[in-house]
Amino acid sequence: MSGDCGGFQFHDDLSSVFGQRPGGGGVSNMLDLQNGEPTGAFMSFNEFLHGSAYYSALARAFDMSISPEEALGVSYGGKVTREVEGESNNINGGGGDVYSNVGSGGGVTPVTPVTPNSSVSLSSTEAAGDEDSGRCKKLDQQGEEKVEDKGDENDGEKSKKVNKPRKKGEKRQREPRFAFMTKSEVDHLEDGYRWRKYGQKAVKNSPYPRSYYRCTTQKCTVKKRVERSYQDPTIVITTYEGQHTHQSPATLRGSSHILASASSSALAPSFHQELLLHQVPPLITTNQQVDANPNMFLQSLQSPFQQFQLPDNYGLLQDIIPTFIPNNHP
DNA sequence: CGCCTTTGACCAGCGC
DNA sequence: GCGCTGGTCAAAGGCG
Fold it and tell me: Compositional bias (Low complexity) at which positions (predicted)?
């Protein structure tokens, strides 16, 4: 079990960590917000994820400025560290509060479309790619081999599906991964990209299956996993791996106008988010102290964002941003 | 017809 | 070595 190849070393962590019910102790109030409201939150991480500067900046920030542990620490405390380092200790019971989001505090927008969700939290691991050193080479190979395989699968013999030659010893560079914790009623949040589901697995210790998605754009190897917190079904944990090599349809659609009309309430929520997210990078510096007191952290983050004159309905971002930004400490 | 989801099977890594 | 688990494949079927 611990042997989760991978994908994400912290996937288990995520499950357990994100799975912690709010109220455990500290900061986690995000889940309590908007209770029972089937609000549709349009989760537009696309801008965040597509090959935009933001993604790169963020990845870089996590990768170079902070260790995975620290990144994770943004949301929860120390126990996690070990997992990130390769141990799959269950941090359950840690009671640590995972949610560090500033509540969306009713930031739910009436105009928000159908995707339910509200609060979001981000975590990042192993952008550093170290972790993979020990495992999951499989993933590396697949990207490339997969292609070959399809061609090779000749023989109609395919008695068994997966009998492709896997190169051994090859390591694949771990792609930066980011996990979002979202309160949502739908598993697959709209993020502006097109995804194809390629698998679903039951997750140990969780009644909810984990779904595996792959970006349908050719040559784009981005993947994402979606699973629900087993402790709080209203929480969806979305983990992105890799970096889009293209722009999302949503972005293409309006990116050029964003800056000009960003403040317009006519913009779709996603655009608001995009704008905001793109403005964020400068704030990403280091996140020392992040692991201190989430509350403190969040509080310190709030002011910087206010300068953006966020639209009334930026609800989601409201939650996302604070979590994203490690810290902006002078 | 193309795209997507579902689903059972396979593989690799890890712990015991 | 065995069993467990996560991750992936690919056939089959559904849908627009």
Answer: 109-125
